[in-house]
Structure formats: C-alpha cells, structure tokens
Amino acid sequence: MTSRRSSAPTLEAVAERAGVSRATVSRVVNGSPKVTSEVLASVNAAIEELGYVPNRAARSLASRRTQAIALVVPEETAKVFDEPYFANIVQGVALHLASTDYALSLLITSAGSVQKTRRYLLGGNVDGAVVVSHHEGDHLLDGVAAHLPLVFGGRPFRPTGGLTHYVDADNVGGGRQAVKHLIDQGCTNIATIAGPADMTAGLDRLQGFREALSAAKLDDSLVEHGDFSPVSGAEAMRWLLARGKRIDGVFAANDQMALGAYAVLAEHGLRIPEDVKVVGFDDDRAAATALPALTSVAQPSAEMGAEMARLLIRLIEGAGDVPEATVMPTELLTRASTGA
Amino acid sequence: MTSRRSSAPTLEAVAERAGVSRATVSRVVNGSPKVTSEVLASVNAAIEELGYVPNRAARSLASRRTQAIALVVPEETAKVFDEPYFANIVQGVALHLASTDYALSLLITSAGSVQKTRRYLLGGNVDGAVVVSHHEGDHLLDGVAAHLPLVFGGRPFRPTGGLTHYVDADNVGGGRQAVKHLIDQGCTNIATIAGPADMTAGLDRLQGFREALSAAKLDDSLVEHGDFSPVSGAEAMRWLLARGKRIDGVFAANDQMALGAYAVLAEHGLRIPEDVKVVGFDDDRAAATALPALTSVAQPSAEMGAEMARLLIRLIEGAGDVPEATVMPTELLTRASTGA
DNA sequence: TTGTATGCGTTATCAC
DNA sequence: GTGATAACGCATACAA
C-alpha cells in the first residue's frame, strides 16, 4: 500500500499566501515582465514555501498548448532498437528536449495501432511530432501534417507539398565519400551492395556511388540490391561475384550487409583488404569489432535527433524560416578493411 | 508556413449532433453500461462523423488522472543507450503501454535537471513512473515514492521501507548458472571479474559466483572488480593473472569486461577456450560476433520493461497484491568461448 | 502594474 | 437511463 499524493497546492493557494490575485501569480509563473519586483519576490517566496508546481493539464487546457511533443517510431523500427541509429535518435531528441520546457511522448506504432496514433496526435495531446520512419507507403500520417507541425527523420519518399520538414544525413555525399576512398586506395573495379529501392537512404547512397565512379570515369554497373540485413548482403555479394568480373572494392549501403559480404568473400578465397577492400555505412557497433575492422561512413544520429527536436520547436513557435530540408554531414571512418 | 489545426470537435459538438446531453456522450466515451443501445449507436455515429477525439488535458483536469506514465532514465545511462539492455527496457515499456490506454513520457535526467524531474513527477503530469537507474545514491527520487507509484528496474541498493517495487533479473542465479557451466566444462580454477561494488547487479552476480564454487567445494578467492567497461575488464584480468595462480575459467560480470579480458589473455599466450574458458553476462550484441563467440548469460530486458509497465499500472489502479520484488529468469547462451 | 471575470473540454454529483 | 450544473486549475482579455 502506497500512500496517495496529498493534493498539491494550487495557484490560488499561492495567491492567498502572497496576498495577491491568481492572475498575478500566473504572471509570475509565466515570467511576465509586468510585475513589480516586490510582488515578484513575495509570490516566489510563497511558491517556494508551498512547493507549488503548476498543473500541466489545467495550464494546457487554458492555453491550448501542451508543451509536449511526440516521438513516433514504428514498431518494426523499435524491434531493431538495437540499431544504434534509432537509439541515438531517441537519445538526441530526449536530451535536447530536456533543456527545454517540452515533455516527450514516445509513441510506438504497431500496424494495428495506426488509428490510435493518429488520434493521439490529432487529439491535442502534443504540439508537434518527430517521426522516425523510412519506408515508402507510410500513409500513417497522411493528413496529419496539415494539422500538426511534423519533422521527419530521413527524406520522405515522395515530396509532400511543402509542409513536411525533415532532417537527413548526407547520404549521397557519404556514398561518394566511401567510393572515392576506395578509388584513392587503388580500387578500379568497384561494386556496390545497395539498399532496398523503397528507402531513400538506400537510393541516395547508390547515387553517391554512381557520382564518384562517374567522376573517375569508372564502370558503375556492378550493382546488387539487398534489404539491409546481413543475409541479403551475403546474397548480393554472391550475385556480384557470379558475374565473373574482377572486383577489388565493395561499397555496402550499410554495415550489416557489408559484414554479410565478409563471409562470402572468405568463401571465395578473397582476402580483405588485400584482394578486396570494403566500406560500409552507419558505423554500426559491429563495424569496429569486425575482423578486419570495417571502414564505414558514420552519420551523426544523436545530433540529428537533437536537430529534429530543435526544428520542431521552432515550427511550433511559429518561426517562418524553418528550412524544409536539413542535411547533416557524414564522416568516413577508415579502418583495416580498406587497408587504412 | 504550415496551416494550423482547425479546432477539433468537442464533446459538446457530438452531443448536439446526436441530440443528447454532454453527460451522455461522456458516458459513451467512457464505456458506461448505463446507456441505451439506441442512444449509444447514435452517439457513436456522431463521434464517427465528426471524428471526435477526447481532449486529454480536459479529461485529466476533471478526472484528476493523466493516463500517462513516465520512464525516467538518468543521462549517464542514456549516453550508453547503445547498451542493448536499456534500449530493450525502453522498448519493452513502450510496447506494453501501446496496448493500454497510457501514454509514455520519456524523461532523461541530467545532474542539473534533478529538480525539474522531481517537479515533473510531482506536478501531476503522470500517474506513476518506471525508473531505470542502478547506482547507489540516486537520491533523486527520495520522497517521490510517497506521492507517486514507482517501479524500479533493478534491485535498489538499500531497502526503501516497503514502498518501492522493482523488477530485476535473477543475477544471483545467472552468476551461478555461468560458473556452474564452467565447472561442467571441466574448469577447476575459476576467477571472476566482478562489477562495481555500488551496483546490486554486480554484487548479485558475484554472489552467484561464490555460491556455485562453494557448492562444488572450489576456491572462490580469485576476484577482481571492474566498472563494466572493457578497459576495466582488461585491467582486472591482468591483476588476476598477476597473482600467479593457474586460471582455466573466467566469469565476467558483463560482456564488455569479458571482451576486455580477451585481449589480455591473448597477450599472455592463453587460448580461448583451450586454455581458459570465458563467460560473460548481458548477451551484448558484441558477444555473438566476438572471436571466439562469447558464452553469456542473457536477461530478458524487453520482458522486464513490459513487466515494469504492467506492475506500475496495477499499482496505479490500486491493486493491493503487487509483489515488492519481481525476479525474472536468466538464460545461459553457450558459445565457442566455453568450448560449446 | 494589478485585479476581475470568463472560458478551456471533461468528469462527476446531483436531481429527474 | 438521462440531463443540468458545478467543479477541475489555470490563462487571459478587459477593466481599473
């Protein structure tokens, strides 16, 4: 049996204690400039003495603002919460919000709870939402953007009429960076294990691959798609080798697929990095501990989370100059797999 | 410029549309049994047509309940969010809550925001909280338990007078399990790299180590403490070897330290598992991909998160039979490091 | 600068 | 079973 909370002191109690009206207390609490320093002091004293803390529900009801934002994560994503990427996004968002006055509601949306999520978002529970999703056809939020400020993590698959804002890593640049590094290391026959065609991150990285090769006037036809899983990476690598062409460099759209390829290369008696150099993407935790350690393109996921939160708050507070797209720089971490 | 939300339909609008009073609509919304099926139908129709969704702030203000719970995570913990343990706890809590009517507020508490967190919790923003912490001296929540139902993740360091409930993994049993496995594999000189002395998880695992050795009448004096980091594991391993006694089995209180020990064993020309068998704890993602793959004790972290949420809700809803301690079973995953 | 009065959208206590 | 009506705790035009 736990004892129940003794009803908290209200604004009115503070008003009486300080000998002023409720309105004045409200002003003090909300930091209004129009209040005498004397009154301010006595009110603050009363607040302190009573341990007053404003009731959010009441405040939100009266002000029509909730001071809360939602972080929407699809269940499939949550299940792979151990992908550092998502965990870091969540962390970044939460950490930034901790320095503001906004609370964070974490929403995990399963296939069956789409309606529930929509209702939650549209039910005036939050002032805005950060959405971390990435698949095409997430109609989940169709129309919501018209009613609620939204910031997406990752470039949406299709343009959404100017009212979606998003924060993305520079996937094209990262892909370019990765492939350029392979070229610099002497590779001339470079293949890529691309991501699925329904995710912009995969497509953008592939484009980076093409741009780098085209700039160096090298062949860019060695392309196979995977679904970001290790087995799909192995599979793709098998197909690439089956083409019979020489391959001395591989750029995988993520580390998991790169590591999947490791095994297949070994099967074929190809050594990394002597025979084939490999670069991944994401700087998965497994990258550094792999043998050989995997060179990878890192994206600043925690910072991206923080940036999403920051932009959302600006949108909520009515800033008119919030950029539709925010692209954050990637970083190439060279390791043994490219002979670093 | 995003267009603003067109004020949502209120309960009153539904009432008018259905030709009944607001009270009746409220009853329908809250599933009261005292309502004619006809009225119920028409009200539901109106709700559907208007796309009505109740306003939480108003509801919470009137009912004095928030239908929200907080998940409190200390910042240091958040920073190691990539420890699967915490990510899984968060996931477990969030996923369970998704099947209920409760919303989840994620609170990351930094050293400087302790007061803010306390205010949030005591300010009637939530009906209860799940606290994932584990260090001694987290006075952060002193006294809060008296006002708000709380469920901790992990056994609190000191008893708290009967009003704290917690969910923990069977760390003692897990430690016992790990060491017993080493014994079964033929080890007779077993050492342990224990966790810090101010964390119950570490202490409990150490106790499991002692119990298993004592049951087998083996020496249990080979103990060195680390702080759960890889370097501390390496350090501890060095000290253990420096004692000059033969060691053919090592139980590390977590995988990170076990992997730290890997390198030191190699330096000393000791092979795993031929010369020394190693067992870790947590089933960190790095465990399976390590070379050799690390045998480890896994704890059901996602399930623990779900259980915490479940218990908290029962507390909130006044159940009197909620157990103070809930201990969840661990599982030994045998891999190459113990010659499996 | 400060106080007064009204409203925010629901729930809950009554009568009917 | 259903409908008025008073809270719930705070913000905010408006008056002073």
Descriptive notes:
2 copies of one chain form a homodimer. The first copy, chain A, is α/β, with parallel strands linked by helices and 340 residues long. Chain A folds into 3 domains: 11-63, 434 Repressor (Amino-terminal Domain); 68-170 and 301-328, Rossmann fold (3-Layer(aba) Sandwich), CATH 3.40.50; 171-298 and 332-338, Response regulator (Rossmann fold, 3-Layer(aba) Sandwich), CATH 3.40.50.2300. In chain A, 42% of the residues lie in helices and 16% in strands. Chain A has 13 helices and 12 strands. Chain A has a 6-stranded parallel sheet, with helices on both faces. A 6-stranded mixed sheet of chain A has the order 7-6-8-9-10-12, sandwiched between helices. In chain A, α9 links the parallel β6 and β7 (223-225). In chain A, α1 (11-18) crosses α2. The first copy, chain A, is elongated and about 85 Å long. Chains A and B meet through α4, α5, α6, β2 and α7 of A and α4, α5, α6, β2 and α7 of B. Chain A binds a DNA duplex (16 and 16 nucleotides) through α2 and α4.
Could you give a short description of this structure?
2 copies of one chain form a homodimer. Chain A is an alpha/beta fold and 340 residues long. Helix content of chain A is 42%, strand content 16%.
Write the layout of secondary structure elements.
Two copies of one chain form a homodimer.
Chain A (H helix, E strand, L loop, with lengths): L10 H8 L3 H8 L7 H14 L5 H8 L4 E7 H5 L4 H15 L4 E7 L4 H9 L5 E5 L17 E4 L11 E5 L1 H14 L5 E5 L5 H16 L7 E3 L4 H13 L6 E4 L2 H13 L9 E5 L3 H5 L5 E4 L2 H16 L8 E4 L2 E3 L7
Parallel strand pairs in A: 1-2, 1-3, 3-4, 4-5, 5-11, 6-7, 6-8, 8-9, 9-10
Antiparallel strand pairs in A: 10-12
The structure holds a DNA duplex (16 and 16 nucleotides).
